[in-house]
Amino acid sequence: MAWDTPTRVRYKTMVQDGYSKRHAAEKLGVSEETAQGWLKKGDRVQKTTGRPRSIPDSTVLAIIQWFTGHYERRIFSPKQIKKEFNLKVSRPTILKALARFGYHYHVPDCKPGTSAKNRLLCWIFSIANWDRPLWYWRNGIYTDETIACTDMLRRQRLLRARGERQRLDCIQFTFHSGHKSVMAWAAIRYNYKSELYFVSYEGEGKGFTQQKYAKQILQGLLKEIFEDLEKGYKTPGTYWCVEDNSRMHGKKDTVRNKGICNGIRIKCHIKSIDWPPQSPDLNPIENIWQVLKQLLRNRKPAGGWKLEELKVAMQDIWENEISIERHINHFIDTMPERIAKVRMRKGGPSGW
């Protein structure tokens, strides 16, 4: 039987699309006799030689159908899949069989991807700021909160194919209990890092509300940071800060919050610039949190953390292992590159 080469396939396709045999042959630069021979010979239909596969395609398709739509099944290890389907093969054989259909183990996302609207806002932000010099980004104060859990489990891995990343059964949704986690706030700037502040949930309202954020952060730490940095400057506004669009930051005035947070920002001379939503890869402090949590996982005791031990460990890592030159300055200096990549990808992720 004839072998299907790219030129032969193109010739047959062109003939099927309405080209004359002569015109198709001229287009591809082959003789008409050779092309006629291709049409007389059929496509290759003989089966591949060699021994049969250890895991036939029908079994692999059954496995894929079994875990599709179930997150708890997608995270099964090859050993668990082997036991579930009574397979008598090795781990690499199972991985190769799934790879034939495009399925591999990946670290899942913890939330759905950026919406089309927010992606557009990121693109607009990158266009408006693509020509900012490096010193501009070095004047920024980047703030954010992070949550650390007492168990500090490593991210799970699950089976998925290309194009399935945003499926709901491929997302590792998280829930943080106040009894097993702590929330910390910090701010960084070029050649500067603030103290690591553990927020307090005490007071009216559940969780960390706008009133608590205004009292503990805006009227407390952030106000002191701006006062210290702007000493000696005749005009305020030399420095600016980044706050994400979390509801507790109260950057949008509503009837319910009565503009409490924005009023305090004006009173305390805190200049908070507009920042696109769902853009953690643009804020360099997110990379600092990743480093801190990885160092925490490396320290994790066998039985897990206690809340006070977790706070002590986070404080020690923040003060002694998070380096201003190696971590903070390095990530802030990547801001022009991040903006350029978001602009080039039309609001897509920067890769940071």
What is the count of β-strands? 7
**Radius of gyration from the CA trace?**
29 Å
- Please tell me the CATH architecture of the largest domain by its name: 2-Layer Sandwich
Structural class: alpha+beta
* Content of β-strand: 5-15%
Number of helices: 15
**Uncertain spans, ≥5 residues at pLDDT below 50?**
none
Using the coordinates shown, work out and report the CATH topology of the largest domain: Nucleotidyltransferase, domain 5
Order of helices and strands: HHHHHHHEHHEEEEEHEHHHHH
CATH superfamily of the largest domain: Ribonuclease H-like superfamily/Ribonuclease H
Number of domains: 3
Share in helix = 40-55%
CATH class of the largest domain: Alpha Beta
Question: What profile does the largest beta sheet have?
Answer: 5 strands, mixed
Separation, N- and C-terminal Cα atoms: 51 Å
Q: Sum up the overall morphology in one term.
A: extended
Mean pLDDT: 85
Please state the oligomeric state of the protein chains shown.
single chain
